[in-house]
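Our consortium's second objective concerns turning raw sequence data into structural hypotheses that experimental partners can test. To show how far this objective has progressed, the report includes one record in full. It was chosen at random from the queue rather than selected for favorable results. The single chain below, 76 residues long, was entered without modification.
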Amino acid sequence: MCMAIPSRIIALGDMMATVECFGEQRDVSLMLLVEEVALGDYVLVQAGSFAYQKVEPDLALEALHYFSQAMSTPAS
């Protein structure tokens, strides 16, 4: 199963963006996106470093909250 975690755009270039998620940054291609994006927008990124969907900020922040909780919960 693949799980996409919203990543925030922190830099934009020609069909490329730098995104950040939980302190990790990476460069991704924007060529699969239909919608325009801007600095601060959240996107979902698939394997191969292609952003494929823009995510509404409130939904992105909610998902990041849940992922953060799951990552800090010790395994039983």
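The partners drew two points from this record. The chain has a mean pLDDT of 90. The longest strand covers residues 7-12. Both points have been shared with the crystallography group to help prioritize constructs.
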